[in-house]
Automatic annotation (TrEMBL):
Residue ranges of domain ABC transmembrane type-1 in the record: 169-348, 492-672
Family matches, as PANTHER family: GLYCINE BETAINE/PROLINE BETAINE TRANSPORT SYSTEM PERMEASE PROTEIN PROW, GLYCINE BETAINE_PROLINE BETAINE TRANSPORT SYSTEM PERMEASE PROTEIN PROW
Subcellular localization: Cell membrane
Family: Belongs to the binding-protein-dependent transport system permease family.
Cleavable signal peptide: none
Domain of life: Bacteria
Keywords assigned by UniProt, alphabetized: Cell membrane, Membrane, Transmembrane, Transmembrane helix, Transport
Membrane topology annotation: Multi-pass membrane protein
Alphabetized InterPro entries for the sequence: MetI-like, MetI-like_sf
Name of the protein in its database record: ABC transporter permease
Amino acid sequence: MQYFTEHKWTQFVALFAVFFALIMVIDPATGGNLWRLQETQFWRLPDVINDGLKFLINDWWVVDIYDAELDLTEESTMMTEFTRGLSGVILFSINLIRELLLGGVKTVVAFTSWDFISEHEWARIPALPWTAVAAGTFLLGHYLGGRKLAILAGASTIYIAVFGQWTPAMQTLSFVLVAVPLSVFLGLALGIIAFKNKTFEAFLAPLLNVAQSMPHFSYLIPVVVFFGIGDHAGAISTVIFATPPMIRLTILGLKKVSPEVLEAGMMSGCSSRQLMFRVLIPTARHDILIGINQVIMQCLAMAVIASFIGARGLGYDLLVSLNMLKIGQALELGVSIVLIAVVLDKLSMAWAKKQVDYFADLPFHLRHKHSLAFLGILIFTSVIAYGASMVFPDKANYLYFIHESQGLTTGTFWDFIVDWIITNTYDSVQSFSFFMTTSILMPMKEAYLSMPVAATLFLVAGTGYIVGGLRSAVVVTAFIGFIALTPWWDRALITAYMATFAVIVSVIIGCSVGILCSRSPRATKAILLVCDTFQTFPSFVYLIPVIMLFGVSDLSVLIAVIVYATIPATRYTVEGLSNVPQTLQEAGSMSGVNRTQRLLKIELPLAFPHIMLGINQTVIFSLFMIIIGAFIGTDDLGQLIMQSLSQANGMGQGIVLGLCVAFIGLAVDHLIHTWAEQRKKVLGVA
């Protein structure tokens, strides 16, 4: 008995034995609630949510609103007025930035009228020449990170312009430049409140977990109902998605401030406000700026998703290209999104690392040499660009703007490559597809669908108890029990089967590649660069090539999921092995072990907690891409979420379905996190 309690693997063997016994005993025809929970009042939860949201929009806090244009007073609700006002402010901000970059009249109309615009042709904001913007990014990169960053930023901007993607790229950038400050402000404010109030932090923690695990499409449904469609709705959904990491990193940064710094601030007579803004926040600057970096990346990740509700830019054009199966054009758009993401990522990271020399006493022209250089370039390029447009009004002005039809393109080349691959690999691909579907995927899917509710909850509770005790058992059982109470248990099992297969394959590939690449510093840098590129590449792009090769099937989705979900498994394996102290590796070598023994006995055990966190992220990435896969047709929870987008009363259903997906991820996250923390304590690296 003592051996059984001390060795967890024996407990898992016993747990699985009982689990399979329950599967054999419970008959689908006569099992009743043991097989599937029957309909209860809980099934009305989506309708309750719908009714609550409708009441909030249509009946809560009715007020009289005077319309000056119509000279009428009409009834409205405070929620409607709030959402209308917020939408107006956000849309005005997006249009202002967009027209500063691309030119336009909407901002002027906001302060005048369309009649004023028609009477005065000069009343419009002129566009910035792309050459001026490219020079500005070059100078900003040089100021923040030196020559290499300047070349990266400038070359990326030139690529976007030369390939005719300037207009959608600037539309996306204007969208990001509004969403990022809103997310940063909200994240910073909520993070400060949570740091100062432990009760609020405890209340906020589960909400952040759910928000970061919810499928993107679940955000879109209530946003459309409350705010309509358009750039403003896309920005609001992006803010909801991008704010949680800012909150977490703000709290983390403030908690990391040493007590000595805090005491020094208090002893110098700082008030509570001065202590926060003059001591704590400047000291936590690095973590807060890392949070801003994460917000930027999250906002760009939502660029394509937000296009579903009317956000314009590269994401919208990419979605149109994918619908038309224009792979080459979609690839160019995807590369443009990646370049914007990489440039903003590098610039924000350089900003976070840049040290300010407060003691430098330089003259004005040296202190502001980059700003003055940009001002001079802006004036010069504007004069040249506008002058050329006036002298040659009928000619294309490549110094001012390069239209999509005038830009370079490699779309035909990539389309040819895809067609060649499809033509020359058709027979082998179809054989592989048939084997995988009939021999592996379908049996696995049927096995998952044969799992009774009672047996599954027993397995989940038992796993939680073995890994983390009674508390973990209650937490993970509550997550999965929520799903069992809904009418979508079978859909959740299909989602779980797809996630299981994808995670197993992704972990095998990712850990293997990570171990091999960690042996060489050059290979480490190369694989991390590949991971960065694949992670910033729009997820929708992965779907079209596999559809064209394998058709619309679970296998198509799973291949796209595996490509995307392998990234964190690879990254965390490389970083975990790279962080093993060199002294321990040398000690192992001096004790006579070879490289394989050192890897298996020293490096992998020490990197195991880090690798487990990578597996945790692999699960989250898999669930995200599985829901995206519903765009091409699957029969899991993602398909129902996609259907909710087009249903008049889809708010409640979309939210509950999103919670089901989130709870699958949170259950796995809790188990892996608990296990990783235990291993850290055992290894003495906690």
